[in-house]
Specification:
The chain is mainly alpha-helical and 178 residues long. Helices cover 84% and strands 0% of the residues. The chain has one domain. Helix 5 packs antiparallel against helix 6. The relative contact order is 0.14. Keywords: Membrane, Transmembrane, Transmembrane helix.
Length: 178
């Protein structure tokens, strides 16, 4: 893969979680969220298509499936924002999918790795996705209805997924001789 494809996600993943937290807190407009979703759709589809021949095997194949399913769910969320801007169940589904899908792929990555150097970062990333999912769901539930708890959940997810993607970028750098 090219350098941008190898290291770009290490910057995009944490940026996406900061953006999601800002949206939950109401710091950005619905129009800004829509624009960001369209940009994400384009990036996901482009990355998926340009890495089809490169992302195979047990680990990269799992991540290729994350891209495929994530792109579909994200596009549905984008359409939902346009069609029903006052109630966006598919947009919420897209957010939950981006919490769960990488978490599951981190478990697959952890299981497939043999060396201890990076292996446990992926397991921690998966665990933090699960913990963050619980916090986010609890914070958004009618029972709590607490944006601070929901954002804390997104922060936990963001830390775990950022650790995993930065680790992957470092591993790619080693393969590239960087």
């Amino acid at each position: 893969m090219g350098l941008l494809k190898d290291v770009g996600p290490a910057g995009l993943v944490p940026a996406a979680w900061v953006f999601a937290a800002a949206a939950v807190l109401g710091l950005i407009t619905a129009r800004t969220v829509l624009i960001a979703m369209v940009v994400m759709d384009v990036l996901l589809v482009t990355f998926f298509l340009t890495t089809l021949s490169e992302m195979n095997g047990p680990v990269l194949g799992a991540w290729q499936r994350v891209l495929a399913v994530g792109a579909v769910v994200n596009i549905l969320g984008t359409v939902d924002l346009v069609v029903t801007p006052e109630a966006d169940p598919l947009s919420a589904l897209a957010l939950y999918a981006w919490i769960v899908l990488p978490g599951a792929a981190y478990v697959r990555t952890w299981a497939a790795m043999s060396g201890p150097t990076y292996r446990h970062v992926y397991l921690v990333g998966a665990a933090l996705s699960l913990v963050g999912l619980g916090l986010f769901a609890a914070g958004g539930a009618t029972l709590l209805d607490d944006a601070t708890v929901a954002v804390a959940g997104l922060a936990v997810v963001g830390v775990g997924q950022t650790a995993g993607i930065v680790t992957a970028a470092l591993q790619n750098g080693e393969r590239l001789g960087s």
